[in-house]
Design goal:
The chain has 35 helices and two strands. The protein has helices at 10-29, 45-55, 71-91, 96-108, 112-125, 130-142, 146-159, 164-176, 180-191, 197-209, 213-226, 230-242, 246-259, 267-279, 283-296, 303-316, 319-340, 345-357, 365-376, 385-405, 409-422, 431-443, 447-460, 464-477, 480-493, 498-510, 514-525, 533-546, 550-563, 567-580, 586-607, 610-627, 630-639, 669-674, 677-695, and strands spanning 642-651, 657-667. Strands 1-2 form a two-stranded antiparallel sheet. α14 (267-279) runs antiparallel to α15 and α32 (610-627) packs antiparallel against α33 (630-639). It starts with 9 loop residues before the first helix and ends with a helix.
Length: 696
């Protein structure tokens, strides 16, 4: 069952042995390498390959030309080539390149039937191959087989109507043959498929080459009906302009404005329309188009349009036109800013100011009103007064515009009423809103309405400013009783308000009611809590001093010193005593003032307040220097302390030592007598000073 190899012949065995013997002898004759050290010059594989490439012949190999001498040899050659092509296609039937080469070979042999047969067989394999159809039709055209070429083109455009190249070449062939009607018919067939723009423009150019402008217009009508887009209408308008039909071109643009959707009214269309009017010497029409476009389009979509408008105004406009261009540019910038953040109220202020500055007639008021209405519609998102402060001024500016510019007081009152409705008064209010509305009513001579507004404001949300403005209004109107009632309500609402008490007392004093004013001051200083008692006491003292009621003023100072021993009270008391002396009483007044100074100095000496004591002594000395006796002045000078520099430790936030700091201290005569060491230090200081002066 085991398979055996056939026996080898004797000759075969001998041949193998002889070859082996020759190989062994060759190996034995090879020179032996005795020096196995590396050669001094090394060579790399890359260098070997480069030298081999350089030694190759530059001329490529060309097959020898075959010369066919007789028909039999030609038939053999053709059969050989066809067999090769057929074998290749049999191996790969989808190789379109092989089919095309096969057909080109048959065409070179002038055997067109066979070439057509090859193309038809290839089309059966892949009828969607555009290159195959192009080669097929070009073969027929090259050899002037017109009807055959038409047949091929017709089949191609029927199978693949979206292949624009087929239509162009087919139409070009018909036009080259002078068959304009056939080319027109082909365009009609093509446009039924609603092709892209280049097909329609080629159709128009065909009609123009045929000198048929009316037919070209008809093509444009079908074009814009198929593609209702700005580019189609602009091409039609330019066509009419080239034909010298300015009216027709304008009519095309106007029809485009009506037929196209508003979203298709873009920057390019308006630019083309305006530039057409410029070329037609219609500057006003072009300006109207520019303005309409800039109003209709957002800023981001009209940058080039605005630049062209600026150039247009510089060429054709006057000063007002250029200013309008600048206003338009700023308007676009503000629109973009408020679109990005509508709660940026400063931008709204600038926008409204721009529109107010651009007002030329009453018809322009709607622009300003529109800006204000859009601005006030952006209510702050939270009931936080900090967010509302700038917002409220929008309403106030709006009302001022209506009253002063538009001269419509009723509309201004309505604006302020709406502003008061928007503000959340349960959280906070703005007194300026109520006051502005009341002043508006006063200017319109409606006093009852103004009082009603301010009374409503005080009842709903009382504030200091509301009371003050209401009182000021009644004072201007001369109604004192209303002022007193208002001050009464004011002090009932805020009994600790020293400014209100002082203002009420000043009102009575201005009316000559000193007793009423004094009674008000007494009620005020008798309150348990006051926000600024020092200002109230000062106003009371100024009132008594102004009335030359010196005894009452002294009594007030004593009452005040019973509550506070502040140095300013003592100094003011002493100053009052100096001023209280009339003609011939100067010495007595200074004695009373000196008594006050002495009492103050003794008080501060007991309490150990050195700085306050120094202030009192300096004021006392200055008074005596202006008109006192020498003995009294020397006595005060003797009480003046010495000013010395000292050091003291500085502690950090946690109580640790943080270094030393210098400060000035005052040493009075009684302290110096109690501490003899201070005299020694003083003498040492004087000695050092004398020594330094002697060395210098």
């Amino acid at each position: 069952g085991r398979r055996t190899s056939p026996p080898k012949s004797t000759a075969t065995v001998r041949a193998r042995r002889s070859r082996a013997a020759e190989k062994m002898s060759a190996m034995s004759n090879m020179p032996k390498v005795t020096n196995k050290q590396p050669a001094p010059m090394q060579i790399t594989a890359e260098q070997i390959l480069r030298e081999a490439r350089e030694r190759q012949e530059d001329e490529p190999y060309t097959a020898p030309a075959q010369k066919v001498m007789d028909p039999e040899e030609l038939a053999v050659y053709r059969m050989k080539e066809r067999k090769q092509y057929e074998d290749r296609l049999r191996m790969n039937r989808n190789a379109m390149g092989a089919w095309i080469k096969y057909a080109a070979f048959e065409e070179a042999q002038r055997d067109f039937e066979r070439a057509r047969s090859v193309y038809e067989r290839a089309i059966d394999v892949d009828h969607r191959n555009s290159a195959l159809w192009l080669k097929y039709a070009e073969m027929e055209m090259r050899n002037r087989h017109i009807n055959a070429a038409r047949n091929v083109w017709d089949r191609a455009v029927t199978l693949m109507p979206r292949m624009d190249q087929f239509w162009f070449k087919y139409i070009y062939m018909e036009e080259m043959l002078g068959n304009v009607a056939g080319a027109r018919a082909l365009f009609d067939r093509w446009t039924e498929w609603e092709p892209e723009d280049h097909a329609w423009t080629s159709f128009v150019r065909l009609e123009l080459r045929a000198n048929q402008p009316d037919r070209a217009r008809a093509v444009f009508q079908r074009y814009v009906a198929c593609h209702n887009l700005p580019r189609a209408w602009v091409k039609w308008a330019k066509f009419e302009e080239k034909q010298g039909q300015t009216a027709n071109s304008r009519a095309v643009f106007e029809a485009a404005m009506q037929e196209m959707d508003e979203r298709d009214h873009g920057e390019a269309f308006f630019l083309a329309f305006a530039q057409f009017e410029e070329r037609a010497k219609e500057a006003e029409r072009a300006r109207a188009i520019y303005k309409y476009a800039l109003e209709a389009l957002p800023r981001s979509q009209a940058l080039d349009l605005h630049k062209k408008y600026v150039q247009f105004e510089k060429q054709h406009g006057d000063r007002r036109g250029i200013e309008n261009v600048v206003v338009t540019r700023k308007r676009f910038a503000y629109e973009e800013a408020v679109k990005a953040d509508p709660h940026t109220y400063d931008v709204w202020f600038d926008y409204a100011r721009l529109e107010e500055s651009a007002i030329e007639a009453e018809a322009d008021y709607h622009r300003v009103r529109d800006v204000y209405e859009r601005a006030v519609a952006n209510v702050p998102p939270a009931a936080d007064k900090r967010l509302w402060r700038r917002y409220i001024y929008l309403w106030l500016k709006y009302a001022l515009f209506e009253e002063l510019t538009a001269l419509d007081a009723e509309r201004a009152a309505a604006v302020l009423a709406e502003a008061r409705r928007v503000v959340p008064h349960e959280h906070f209010t703005f007194a300026k809103l109520w006051v502005h509305a009341a002043h508006l009513e006063v200017r319109q001579k409606r006093l009852d309405a103004a009082r009603k507004l301010l009374g409503q404001a005080i009842g709903r949300c009382p504030k200091d400013k509301l009371f003050k403005e209401y009182v000021q209004l009644e004072l201007q109107l001369g109604d004192v009783e209303r002022c007193r009632k208002l001050y009464g309500r004011y002090l009932e609402w805020s009994p600790s308000n020293c400014a209100a008490w002082a203002a009420y007392a000043d009102l009575e004093a201005s009316l000559g009611e000193a007793s009423r004013s004094r009674a008000i001051f007494e009620l005020a200083v008798g309150q348990e809590q006051l926000d600024m008692p020092e200002s109230l006491w000062k106003a009371y003292l100024d009132f008594e001093i102004g009335a030359s009621e010196w005894d009452k003023a002294r009594a007030l100072y004593r009452r005040l010193l019973a509550r506070t021993r502040h140095v300013k009270v003592w100094l003011s008391f002493a100053t009052m005593e100096v001023e209280a002396g009339g003609e011939g009483e100067g010495e007595a007044a200074r004695e009373r003032a000196a008594a006050v100074y002495a009492e103050a100095e003794a008080s501060f000496r007991e309490s150990g307040q050195k700085d306050e004591r120094v202030l009192v002594l300096e004021a006392w000395r200055d008074m005596l220097a202006r008109g006192g006796s020498e003995a009294a002045l020397a006595s005060v000078e003797a009480k003046m302390p010495k000013r010395v520099k000292k050091r003291r430790p500085v502690l950090g936030e946690e109580g640790e030592a943080a270094g030393w700091e210098e400060y000035y201290d005052y040493i009075f005569a009684e302290e110096e007598a109690a501490a003899p060491s201070l005299k020694i230090l003083d003498m040492a200081r004087k000695w050092k000073k004398q020594k330094v002066e002697g060395d210098s």
